[in-house]
TrEMBL record, chains A, B:
Pfam family, one: Pyridox_ox_2
Higher taxonomy: Bacteria, Bacillati, Actinomycetota, Actinomycetes, Mycobacteriales
SUPFAM superfamilies cross-referenced by the UniProt entry: FMN-binding split barrel
Superkingdom, natural source: Bacteria
InterPro entries from the UniProt entry: Pyridox_Oxase-rel (IPR024747), Split_barrel_FMN-bd (IPR012349)
Protein name per its UniProtKB record: Fmn flavoprotein
Length: 210, 210
C-alpha cells in the first residue's frame, strides 16, 4: 500500500483481495482514465482489458498526442460498479452500494509486436468469444491503434455491500421503508445490422450475454 | 467551444445540444472526478446532482484536503453511459455505443447556507422523491458534508448510437452475424432492512424505479 492508496475515508471499506479486484475489473466495460495535460486534469472513458497483473487501455492514435507518448503517461484509472441504491430513513444516511478500484501508475504504449495480443485482451474483455468469430486486425489497422499497458501494482479497492446504517435507538421515523434496491446491467434484444442475413443464427459471443 | 473541448477524434460524434447533455447527466448515477494532487492525476467516483447549469459533486469532509479547499479545485468530470455493444465482422470495427460528457472547470465548495439545497439536488438525482420521505440533514450532518459546485460551461459531449460500420464491398465474411446488443440498467427486487416492518408498503421513490 502506498501513500496515495491509503484510504483516509471509511478505511473499513478497503479490500486487499486480488480476487475482488480482478472480478471487479473483469465485470466492468468502461474505465475512466485521468491524466494531466498542460497542468490540468483530463478524464476520458476508455475500453480496457486485463491480462494477469496488466491492464490494457484502448485508444486511437488520433485521440491526442498524450496516447502516443513514447515516454508513457502518468495516469489514474477508476473502474466503478454501482451495485445498489441504499434507502435510509435520513437524507444523510442515504447511500450507494458499490465496488470501485482506483489504480495509479505509469501507462506505456504496447510495443508493435505485442499489440495484437493486447487488442485480443480488450476485445475478449468486452465481448468474450468474439475474437475467434471475426477477422483479426490487419497490419494497417494495428498501426492505427494505440494500446497502453499499466501494471496493477498500486491499487485502492473499496466495497460497500450492506443495508442502510441504522441504529435501533436513532430516533428516525420507523414508519418509513428502508432497504436496498439492487442495480445490475441487462442486455436487450440483439439488433442485426442491415448486411446481416436474417436467417443467420446469433453467434455464441452474443447468446452468452442473453 | 474551448481548445480542450474541441474533439480531435471522430468530431462527427460531437453533440452541442444542451438537452442531450442534461438528459445524459440526469440519467447517470456516478461521475468520475479527476484532479491533480502533488502533480499526479487522481480519479475518484462521486455522487452528483444537477440544478440547471450547475453540477453538484458530493463528497465528505473526510475525503481529503482537496475537497476542503476554499480556493476550489481544477477538475475534469466524466459521465458515461454504455448503451450497447457493437458486434462488427472484424476486431478493428468492434465498438460500443455510448453517450459521454467530459466537463472541465473549477469546482468550488458550496457555501454553508446553500448546502441543504445542493444536498437535496444530489439526493433527488439519485433517488427521485426520496427527499420528502426522509428526515432532512441536521446542522451537524450538514457540517460534516462537503458539496462542490461546478458550472456546466466547458463541456464536450460525444454520442455513438449506430450499428457496426460496414461497407457492402469490404470483403468481410458475411456469414458472421453483425449488429448491436443494447445495454441498460435494471433494478432488482427491493431488500428491506432488518428494522423495516414487513407490512410497510414500498415508498413511491422505490416503486418509481421498478
Amino acid at each position: 500500500m502506498s501513500e496515495r492508496t491509503r484510504l483516509t475515508r471509511k478505511p473499513e471499506r478497503g479490500n486487499d483481495d486480488p480476487g475482488v479486484l480482478h472480478r471487479l475489473l473483469d465485470e466492468a466495460r468502461v474505465a475512466h482514465v485521468g491524466f494531466v495535460r498542460r497542468g490540468c486534469p483530463v478524464v476520458l472513458p476508455m475500453a480496457f482489458g486485463r491480462d494477469g497483473n496488466r491492464l490494457f487501455l484502448h485508444g486511437s492514435t488520433g485521440a491526442g498526442a498524450f496516447l502516443d507518448s513514447r515516454q508513457g503517461l502518468e495516469v489514474s484509472v477508476a473502474v466503478t460498479h454501482l451495485d445498489g441504491l441504499v434507502f435510509a430513513r435520513s437524507a444523510f444516511d442515504s447511500s450507494m452500494n458499490y465496488r470501485s478500484a482506483v489504480i495509479f501508475g505509469h501507462a506505456m504504449p504496447v510495443p508493435a509486436e505485442d499489440k495484437q495480443d493486447a487488442l485480443r485482451a480488450v476485445t475478449e474483455h468486452l465481448m468474450p468469444g468474439r475474437w475467434e468469430e471475426v477477422r483479426p486486425p490487419t497490419p494497417k489497422e494495428l498501426a492505427a491503434t494505440t494500446v497502453l499497458v499499466l501494471a496493477l501494482d498500486e491499487v485502492s479497492v473499496k466495497v460497500r455491500a450492506a443495508g442502510p446504517g441504522e441504529d435501533p435507538d436513532d430516533g428516525e421515523d420507523r414508519s418509513v421503508w428502508a432497504g436496498v434496491v439492487p442495480i445490475h446491467t441487462a442486455f436487450g434484444a440483439p439488433e442485426r445490422s442491415p448486411l446481416t442475413d436474417p436467417t443467420l443464427p446469433l453467434p455464441r459471443s452474443v447468446t452468452a450475454l442473453l
